[in-house]
Specification:
Distance between the termini: 36 Å
CATH architecture of the largest domain: Orthogonal Bundle
Strand order of the largest sheet: 1-7-8
Radius of gyration: 26 Å
Number of strands: 8
CATH topology of the largest domain: Arc Repressor Mutant, subunit A
Strand content: 15-25%
Structural class: alpha+beta
Number of domains: 3
Order of helices and strands: EEEHHEHHEEEEHHHHHH
Shape: elongated
Amino acid sequence: MIKYCLILIYDIDIDMASHSTGSLTLIGDFGLILDIIGNNTRRKILATLAREPMYFNQLAKEIGVGQQAILRHVNALEDIGLIKSYAEKSNLGAPDRKYYRLDSSFSLTVSISQDSFSIENHKIEQYRHKESDKFYMEYDLLSQGDDGEFLQRLQANLVNIEKEITNLDSRLNDLRALKQLIVHRLHKIARDNFEEEFERKILHTIMDEAPKSISELANKLNEKPSYIKNTLNKMNNKLYSHENGKKSVFTVMSNK
């Protein structure tokens, strides 16, 4: 299992389902996001701005890239909605400085394995699940005390949260490994029993998208329901050629 995970977090809440710049809707543009962050300099910009906002010249110096190159990269990141620029007045009477900060809060996970490929995009938001109560309670109590004590308790809380995330990631990875075993077995069944490509396509569609009826399955495959039903019956007979009347996922589907 090869897994690539991008997480961008900033201390503001943004409705990623509706957040857009121009004609782009960030949460659905997987390909565009991957193209943008495929560049090493842009990843450095995002990592730098994750710590604190910076003005243009400061960012160019920190990244170690010329100003013209930085300008192209920040424009690309801003166009897609990953960062945002804003003006801040100078205390020395100089012209306003243009600052950049992260402007997104979502996680993007790409999973590639021998038998599957998926991209998942989730908005990062507070649900305050029961299992997370103790961490939220610790955070809610952190407002007491001076900054020195506050910083120490924040660090301890952050360490505990990172441990919890690591444990959850380990369990998720284990479940993904089990899913891979199941998917691999399904693919083997498809190859061993169904020579026609369309039959295998039906099987994959049923397993991947779980349609609830013949009509729904027919719509997904852009075929007539009667043709789908006949094909399902044929597929069932191939699986149980010596056991008449034996039911499978295909006969259950054909009766819906």
